[in-house]
Design brief:
Low-confidence stretches: 74-84
Largest sheet: 2 strands, antiparallel
Number of strands: 2
Strand order of the largest sheet: 1-2
Distance between the termini: 32 Å
Shape: elongated
Number of helices: 12
Radius of gyration: 35 Å
Order of helices and strands: HHHHHHHHHEHHHE
Length: 373
């Protein structure tokens, strides 16, 4: 096992700044000599020792290697590791195995951020986007629709209330019908078993009366709702229901629902524009500060930033490419899956936590890294 401390010429308890200085000096010397193999070893050592989590794991393995006598204290290259044994389908993973090592070289002077700080930065940015979402969908959208289409909004609210009321009355009628059928069956059972026929007949009479009352209440409500159907027809809204021979004539509730769908289809364009406005605002929140400083609000507070693989600033092109993939994907998914899209996007964005280079799909696409600011 390579002794990274010996390779860099520092003590095992050296501070990160001391390790950084030693790394730069030795790398400059090997670069001048054209020794690419030693430069690669130095890069591996720096990538591990600059990350507190990886350094802690390495220190444990180094201590064990020192006890086993397998630590190369002169900095000589360790023999190639044996090929890992394939893990069985139901065999648990080896928790003692070292974490995957980064496969990209950090820009000079850069260091990996602590995963906790990067995660908190993401939470802060998600909180800002959530506030934008709430403001757009629960405040801006109702206000804009009320201002641009007040009559249609009022009609949809009254239609929704009427449809809900008819649903309740239809359910009450169906429940009363079921109770009447149960009472009829109870009477038949009492007659066959020489039971209390008189009580069963009384219960049946009560059930029939309850069913009649429920049906009458539904009929009366449907007559009152007919005025709302007439209003829909007068306003030019569709109330025609596709004919179905098995179901018979359409009910008042079905005609109201058809009107509700027709009115809402007329509001779809405005709603879609507001939805797209939210995604544009979210994109601007992520792109503008990132293009200028490499940091969103969350990253600035947690002192991390986004750079290109070569360490150059993100710029406008990099910012649009990195965050555009996230926002456009979330936009498309939202139009198809609604709220479920947020969970899918979150899983994709958090993919950096299982990547040895701490790169999510958006980082790998845009060729960017998140480093300490």
């Amino acid at each position: 096992m390579d002794d990274y401390y010996g390779l860099l010429g520092v003590q095992a308890d050296a501070e990160t700044e001391e390790i950084r200085t030693a790394y730069r000096e030795k790398k400059a010397a090997f670069d001048a000599a054209g020794d690419k193999e030693q430069v690669a070893r130095l890069n591996r050592a720096w990538n591990v020792l600059s990350d507190p989590y990886q350094r802690g794991r390495y220190d444990e393995q180094r201590a064990q290697a020192a006890l086993d006598g397998t630590l190369e204290r002169d900095g000589a290259a360790a023999p190639p590791p044996a090929a890992p044994r394939r893990r069985g389908l139901f065999q648990p993973p080896d928790r003692t195995a070292p974490p995957p090592q980064p496969t990209v070289e950090l820009p000079p002077g850069a260091s990996w951020p602590q995963p906790r700080r990067r995660l908190v930065a993401m939470i802060i940015d998600l909180a800002v986007l959530f506030v934008l979402f709430v403001g757009t969908f629960f405040f801006a959208m109702p206000a804009i629709l009320d201002a641009t289409s007040p009559d249609e909004v009022d009609l949809t609210e009254r239609l929704a209330d009427e449809i809900a009321e008819l649903d309740d009355l239809e359910q009450a009628r169906d429940d009363a019908r079921d109770e009447r059928r149960d009472a009829e069956q109870a009477l038949e059972d009492a007659q066959e078993a020489d039971g209390d026929v008189e009580a069963a007949e009384a219960a049946l009479e009560d059930a029939r009366a309850a069913e009649e009352d429920a049906a009458a209440a539904l009929t009366a409500r449907e007559e009152d709702a007919g005025a709302l159907v007439d209003e829909c027809d007068a306003g030019g809204h569709d109330t025609e229901v596709d004919p179905d021979d098995d179901e018979g004539a359409p009910t008042v509730r079905e005609r109201l629902e058809e009107c509700y769908l027709d009115v809402n289809s007329g509001l779809f364009g405005t709603r879609l524009a507001i939805i797209e406005g939210f995604f544009v605002l979210g994109l601007l929140y992520l792109v503008v500060p990132s293009a200028l400083t490499g940091q969103t609000l969350g990253k600035a507070l947690m002192k991390v930033r986004v750079v290109r693989l070569d360490g150059s600033p993100l710029g406008w092109g990099g910012a649009f490419k990195r965050y555009g993939l996230i926002v456009v994907g979330a936009n498309v998914l939202y139009l198809v899956l609604q709220v479920l899209s947020a969970a899918i996007v979150l899983v994709v964005v958090l993919g950096w936590m299982r990547n040895p280079n701490q790169q999510g799909l958006h980082d790998r696409t845009a060729k960017t890294l998140v480093v300490d600011a």
